[in-house]
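Researcher: Sequence recovery benchmark, item below. Answer with residues only.
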């Protein structure tokens, strides 16, 4: 691929930090950047590896901050408690843009700089309807029966 372009960015959609770091180390010097995604939680480990590859374990999520992975909190909490199927509406409120800016030397494909991005969304927090509250009836414990 380097014959076609010097600038190569790899998105590692992985579950664990160890697999993303391993992939970044494996690709160091072969690509311009390795940026992890999937967990929705931005990490603070941006760096440039010795071979010139920019790395960030997870770029984070663009979306509602007061949420569980961008979804309304109460329906997800109630799903964990009740173990019953439920829909998970998108959360409202403050949103943030998260990711990374990478400066790459176009002639070599080596990263020059990587900067994490964590910026508020445009304007004031979006007004939204209140999140649905779902009351879950607690099953009696074995001691109560």
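Model:
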């Amino acid at each position: 691929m380097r014959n076609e372009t010097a600038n190569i960015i790899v998105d590692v959609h992985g579950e664990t930090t160890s697999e993303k770091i391993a992939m970044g180390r494996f690709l160091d010097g072969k690509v311009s950047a390795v940026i992890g995604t999937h967990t929705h939680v931005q990490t603070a480990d941006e760096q440039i590896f010795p071979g010139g590859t920019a790395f960030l374990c997870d770029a984070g999520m663009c979306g509602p901050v007061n949420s569980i992975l961008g979804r309304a909190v109460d329906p997800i909490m109630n799903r964990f408690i009740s173990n019953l199927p439920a829909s998970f509406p998108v959360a409202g409120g403050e949103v943030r843009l998260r990711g990374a800016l990478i400066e790459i030397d176009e002639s070599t494909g080596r990263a020059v700089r990587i900067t994490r991005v964590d910026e508020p969304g445009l304007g004031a927090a979006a007004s939204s309807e209140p999140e649905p509250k779902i009351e879950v009836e607690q099953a009696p414990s074995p001691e109560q029966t």
